[in-house]
TrEMBL record:
Every Dynein axonemal assembly factor 5 HEAT-repeat domain range: 143-336
Name used for this protein in its record: Dynein axonemal assembly factor 5
Gene transcribed to yield this protein: Dnaaf5
InterPro entries documented for this protein: ARM-like (IPR011989), ARM-type_fold (IPR016024), DAAF5 (IPR052623), HEAT_DAAF5 (IPR056497), TPR_DAAF5 (IPR057978)
GO cellular component, one term: cytoplasm
Protein family (similarity comment): Belongs to the DNAAF5 family.
Function of the protein: Cytoplasmic protein involved in the delivery of the dynein machinery to the motile cilium. It is required for the assembly of the axonemal dynein inner and outer arms, two structures attached to the peripheral outer doublet A microtubule of the axoneme, that play a crucial role in cilium motility.
Length: 662
C-alpha cells in the first residue's frame, strides 16, 4: 500500500516518525515488532533523512529481551543497508547496528545478520568493482588468521575499513558507559569490527589501546574477555614494530594490570615469525624492576605470568634468547605472598620454558642461570630490609633451585655473610636464617649437593652463626638466636660439622651455646643441650676445670626445665660430662663439684616423672665410677627422704657390683 503511494507518501512520512518512536517501547512485544517494521517502511519509502531520528530507538531495541523484536530490528537495518536510497551516507551509523546482531544469543538472529551482511558486502563489491579491481585480482589471504574464524568477504572488509574512523570514537565511548549491558555489547562489536578491519587497525592504535587499557580493568568479566580477544587481533593484524612502540611506553610509567593483560593478548595473537625480531625487547620490558616488582597484588602478578606464558607459547625455542629475563619474572612472581595455586602455575610455566629449550625440567633452568640470578638479586643486598622484595626472591632462588644452589655457594654464602651481620635489619636476618635452616635440614639435596659446603663452614660459623648467637634484647633477637642454634644443630646432625671442625670452633661457640640453654624457646633449649652433648663427646676430655664447671652448672639447671624433652636431654648430657671427666687430667681438682652434682642428682632421682628418674639413675651410674665411696655416703644420707627408695637401692647395688667385679 505504502509503496504504491511513494510520491505522496514521501511528503507525509516525516510526520509519522514521532508517533512511531513514542510507541516503539510499548509493553506488548507484538506492538514493538509492528512499530519497527512500520518504521523500516516509512524510512525506506518516505523521507530517508529521518534515519537519524530513529537510530537511537532502534539501537535500544537490540537490547530487547524478546528475540522477535531483535529479529525485526536486524531485518529493518539489513533492508536499509541494501535498499535505502541514501544508504552510503548512513553506512557508518547502520553497520554497527547490523554487526551488533552477530553476537545475539539466538542462532536464528545471528544467521539473519550474517546473511544480510554477506549480501550487503557482495552488493557493495559489485557497485564499486572498478575501485576494488586490484584488490579482487591480487588480494592474498593472510597466512596467520584467528583460529575458528571465517574471513569476511572483500566488500564486507572494505565497508568496515572505510567507515571505521567514524564508528570507533562513539564505540570506544560506549565501552566506558555506566550501563554494563552497553559495555558488553560495545566490546563484542569492537571484536567484530577489528576482525573486518585487519591491518587498517594500525591507524587507530592509540585510541584502541587507551580504550582497551580501561576496558580490561572492567568489573564485568564479559567486557574483559571480549577486550582481550580484540587485543589479540591487534597482534594478528598490526606489525609488532608499530604495536610494541605504542604499548611499551605504558610500561615505562607505572603499568597497570590491564596494560600487562593487553600486551599478553597482543603477544598471543601474533605470528611467531613476525614476533621473533622483537623477542629481546619484550623480555627486557617485562623483566625490568618497574614492571615485575611494581606490585605484590596477586591479580597483577597473574597477568604478568600470562604474559610470560604467551611469550613461551608463541615464540617457542626463540625464548632461549630471553630465558634469563623470563626466569627473573617467574622468580619475582613466585616470591610474592600468594596462594599455592599461583605458585603451581609458575612452576608449570618454568617447566614449559625448560621444555621449549629442550631441557629436562625447571632445575635445569636454574642450573643454566643460577649465578646470574644470584648476582641480579644481590646487587643491593647491603641495604636489604625485611621489606625488600629481593629477600623473598633470594629465598625462592635458594629453596626452589633444589640441588643447583650447591653449585653457587660463593655467591650464596657471600649474600648470607653480608646480610646476617648483627647491625642489619633483625626481621630480615630472621627470614634469611629460616631459609638457611630449611636448606641445612636437607643439606645433601640442596646446599651440599656437590659436597662443597664443608669448605665454607669456617665462614658460616665464625662470620654468620657466632655473631648472631650473642644475646640481644627483644623477641626478634631471641628468634634469630633460636634459628642460629637450629642451623648449628642441623650442621652437626647431618655430620657436615665433623669432629675436626668442632675442635676448631669450640672455643668460639661453646659459651654462646651454653647461654642458649637459658632461652625462652623450648626448642632452642633442647637443641642447645644436644649441641653441648656433642661438643662434650668430641672435645670434653680436653676441657679445663673452668669449662667443666661452667658446663655442668648450666646443664644441671635444665633438670628443672618445664619441658620433659629438655630435662631428658640435660640428663643425657650430664652422663657424657661424667665420662669426659673420668679420663680428664683435671679430675682430682673437681671432687668438690662432683660431690655437689651427686647431691643435686639424688634430689632428681626422686622426681615425680618416672622417665626422668630412670635417666638420672643412668647418669649416677656413669658418675659413680669417679668417687664411689663419696656417692654411697650421699645416697645413705638421702635415701630416707625419698618417696621411692627403689632407685637409691638399685644405685647402691650397682656400685657394690662394680666394686666386686673390679
Amino acid at each position: 500500500c505504502l509503496s504504491a503511494l511513494t510520491e505522496h507518501f514521501h511528503m507525509q512520512s516525516e510526520s509519522l516518525i514521532k508517533p512511531l518512536m513514542q510507541t516503539i517501547s510499548h509493553q506488548h512485544y507484538r506492538v514493538r515488532v509492528d512499530v519497527i517494521q512500520a518504521t523500516g517502511a516509512v524510512i525506506q519509502f518516505g523521507n530517508g533523512k529521518s534515519v537519524d531520528d530513529v537510530l537511537s530507538h532502534l539501537a535500544q531495541r537490540l537490547f530487547d529481551e524478546i528475540p522477535k523484536v531483535r529479529h525485526a530490528v536486524t531485518t529493518v537495518i539489513g533492508e536499509w543497508l541494501l535498499h535505502l536510497r541514501d544508504r552510503y551516507s548512513y553506512f557508518h551509523k547502520l553497520i554497527p547496528l547490523l554487526l551488533g546482531s552477530f553476537t545475539d544469543e539466538i542462532p536464528e538472529n545471528m544467521k539473519l545478520a550474517w546473511t544480510y551482511w554477506e549480501k550487503i558486502g557482495l552488493q557493495w563489491e559489485k557497485e564499486n568493482e572498478e575501485d576494488l579491481k586490484d584488490k579482487m585480482d591480487f588480494s592474498v589471504s593472510p597466512s596467520h588468521y584467528p583460529r575458528g574464524e571465517t574471513r569476511p568477504g572483500l566488500g564486507c572488509r572494505e565497508l568496515v575499513s572505510r567507515n571505521l574512523s567514524k564508528i570507533l570514537p562513539g564505540l570506544c565511548h560506549d565501552m566506558t558507559d555506566w550501563v554494563e549491558s552497553t559495555r558488553i555489547k560495545a566490546s563484542q562489536l569492537l571484536y567484530t569490527l577489528l576482525l573486518h578491519a585487519e591491518d587498517h587497525i594500525t591507524q587507530h592504535m592509540e585510541l584502541l589501546l587507551r580504550t582497551l587499557y580501561q576496558a580490561c580493568s572492567d568489573e564485568a568479566s564479559e567486557v574483559v574477555k571480549n577486550s582481550v580477544k580484540a587485543a589479540e587481533l591487534i597482534g594478528t593484524f598490526v606489525s609488532p614494530k608499530v604495536s610494541l612502540k605504542l604499548i611499551t611506553p605504558a610500561f615505562e610509567q607505572t603499568p597497570k594490570a590491564s596494560c600487562v593483560m593487553v600486551l599478553a593478548a597482543v603477544i598471543r595473537g601474533s605470528p611467531k615469525e613476525i614476533l621473533q625480531p622483537h623477542v629481546t625487547q619484550l623480555g627486557n620490558t617485562v623483566s625490568q624492576a618497574g614492571v615485575c616488582q611494581r606490585s605484590e597484588e596477586v591479580f597483577y602478578m597473574e597477568q604478568l605470568l600470562y604474559c610470560v606464558q604467551a611469550l613461551i607459547e608463541v615464540c617457542q625455542e626463540d625464548c632461549r634468547e630471553i630465558s634469563l629475563q623470563l626466569m627473573k619474572v617467574l622468580v619475582t612472581i613466585m616470591a610474592i605472598p600468594s596462594s599455592e595455586d599461583l605458585k603451581e602455575k609458575v612452576e608449570k610455566t618454568m617447566s614449559s620454558l625448560a621444555e621449549v629449550q629442550q631441557l629436562e625440567g625447571f632445575h635445569c633452568l636454574y642450573k643454566q642461570h643460577i649465578i646470574q640470578l644470584l648476582e641480579w638479586v644481590s646487587v643491593s643486598c647491603e641495604g636489604w630490609t625485611c621489606y625488600s622484595p629481593e629477600v623473598l626472591q633470594f629465598e625462592v632462588i635458594a629453596t626452589h633451585s633444589g640441588p643447583v644452589i650447591g653449585e653457587a655457594l660463593d655467591d650464596f654464602v657471600l649474600v648470607l655473610k653480608t646480610c646476617l651481620q648483627p647491625n642489619k635489619d633483625p626481621q630480615m636476618r630472621l627470614k634469611l636464617f629460616t631459609v638457611l635452616s630449611q636448606l641445612l635440614q636437607k643439606a645433601s639435596e640442596t646446599i651440599n649437593s656437590q659436597g662443597l659446603f664443608p669448605s665454607y663452614l669456617e665462614t658460616v660459623i665464625k662470620d654468620i652463626l657466632a655473631p648472631n648467637l650473642q644475646w640481644h634484647a627483644g623477641r626478634t633477637a631471641a628468634a634469630i638466636r633460636a634459628t642460629a642454634v637450629l642451623c648449628l644443630w642441623a650442621l652437626i646432625h647431618c655430620e657436615m660439622l665433623s669432629p675436626k671442625e668442632i675442635l676448631k670452633v669450640k672455643d668460639e661457640l661453646m659459651p654462646q651455646v651454653i647461654a642458649s640453654m637459658d632461652e625462652d624457646s623450648k626448642i632452642t633449649r633442647l637443641m642447645a643441650c644436644r649441641i653441648v652433648d656433642v661438643f662434650l663427646k668430641v672435645c670434653g676430655r680436653q676441657f679445663d676445670s673452668d669449662k667443666f664447671k661452667n658446663t655442668y652448672t648450666e646443664v644441671l639447671k635444665r633438670l628443672d626445665d618445664a619441658s620433659c624433652d629438655v630435662r631428658l636431654a640435660a640428663a643425657h648430657t650430664l652422663a657424657n660430662w661424667f665420662k669426659c671427666l673420668k679420663d680428664s687430667d683435671v679430675k682430682s681438682s673437681m671432687e668438690g663439684h662432683v660431690e655437689l652434682l651427686y647431691q643435686e642428682l639424688l634430689v632428681h632421682l626422686d622426681d615425680p616423672d618416672e622417665n626422668l628418674q630412670k635417666a638420672v639413675l643412668e647418669v649416677l651410674k656413669e658418675g659413680s665410677i669417679l668417687y664411689p665411696d663419696l656417692l654411697v655416703r650421699e645416697i645413705e644420707g638421702a635415701v630416707h627422704k625419698h618417696q621411692t627408695p627403689v632407685y637409691c637401692n638399685q644405685l647402691l647395688h650397682h656400685i657394690q657390683s662394680a666394686k666386686e667385679s673390679a
